[in-house]
Amino acid sequence: MPDEPVHALVTIRATAPSRGPYRVDGDWKLVDADGVVMPLPERKDPRRISLCGCGMSLKWPICDGTHKTHFPPAETLTP
């Protein structure tokens, strides 16, 4: 009998600020459209990552901070 996938209830937290990256915390894996687990850079906390929200990261889908040089700070914008 082949190994059956193990499904478990896990908790993640995804935060989508109005500007900047999407932050993901919890036990998770990043997979591509084919379901292949994507390799990730080493991080201080492997349960936390920032995903690109602007589409300009050179390390996409990982945020590399490029948004900071292309968008003015939120506090300088008028509604």
Report on the architecture of this protein.
It is a single chain. The protein has 79 residues and is mainly beta. Helix content is 5%, strand content 16%. It is built from 1 helix and 3 strands. The protein has a 3-stranded antiparallel β-sheet with strand order 1-2-3, with no helix packed on it. It is globular.
Name its key features:
79 residues; mainly beta; 3-stranded antiparallel beta sheet
Task: Give the topology, please.
Elements: E1 12-15, E2 22-26, E3 48-51, H1 67-70
Antiparallel strand pairs: 1-2, 2-3
Tell me, rounded to a whole number, the average pLDDT. Answer: 79
Order of helices and strands: EEEH
Strand order of the main beta sheet, please?
Answer: 1-2-3
Uncertain stretches of 5 or more adjacent residues: none
Radius of gyration: 16 Å
Helical fraction equals under 10%
Most strands sheet: 3 strands, antiparallel
